[in-house]
Amino acid sequence: MAVKAVAFLGRSGTGKTTLIEKVLPELATRGYRVGAIKHDAHRFDIDHQGKDSHRLTAAGAATMVITSSEKLALVKKHAKSPPAEELIDQYFRDVDLVLVEGFRKSGLPKIELFRKEKNDPLICRGEIDDPMLVAVASDAPLDIDVPLLDLNAPVNIADFIEEKILKHGAR
User: Fold this and answer.
1) Where are the alpha helices (H) located in the chain, listed in sequence order?
2) Residue 112: which H helix or E strand, with range?
């Protein structure tokens, strides 16, 4: 069975990471093994100059793994950012669910975040009409064709994910 996933997307400053860090432990306490992927539109570096891992990638390693008794990190060079679905298939086979931040062009089910103080148009019902939008998490009432979730109720959002994605779900 394929690993299930849901992408959280929204404009900058809507609280995607904050919501994921509240929903993730709620799902974990229910017995699910949960993974996470964050898409970063900017360049980031976890492989810092002067460290052995950096020395190995600087020496030309196309793939480098650093590991300890508790965790591992993978540094893999690529020409362009791989699609979320590819990352899930390659690296998340040991989890029940992957919470994805970003990847608005993916074919994953999506929950879009909306904040009234930002008042920006929805991405999935504005810029595009994304059929993979399964809900909107908002702090304001909206007239929308998908379920409207309370952005400030992560337990209810976890309930929705459990019911819609884990039990009956699309990917």
Assistant:
1) 16-29, 52-58, 84-91, 154-161
2) strand 110-114
CA atoms of 6 and 37, how far apart (whole Å): 10
Q: What is the DSSP letter of 85?
A: H
Taking domain 4-39+81-167, whether its CATH number is 3.50.50.60 is answered by: no
Contact 124, 133 (CB under 8 A): yes
CA distances from 63 to 75, 107, 131 (A): 6, 27, 36
Question: Amino acid identity of 152?
Answer: N
- Asked if 20 contacts 112 with a C-beta cutoff of 8 angstroms, the reply is no
Domain residues of the chain, as ranges? 4-39+81-167, 44-79
pLDDT along the chain (171 residues), means of 10: 89 94 97 92 66 83 88 84 91 95 93 90 88 96 96 97 86 45
pLDDT of residue 53: 79
- Non-local (6+) Cβ contacts of 168 within 8 A are none
Residues 6+ apart with CB under 8 A from 104: 7, 9, 110, 123, 124, 130
